[in-house]
Amino acid sequence: MYLLLIAVILTILKYMEIGPVAGWSWWVIIGVYAATAVWWQVADASGWTKRKAMEKEDRVKLDRQERIRKRLEQGTKGKR
Question: Which residue, of 4, 14, 25, 48, has the fewest CB within 10 Å?
Answer without folding.
Answer: 25
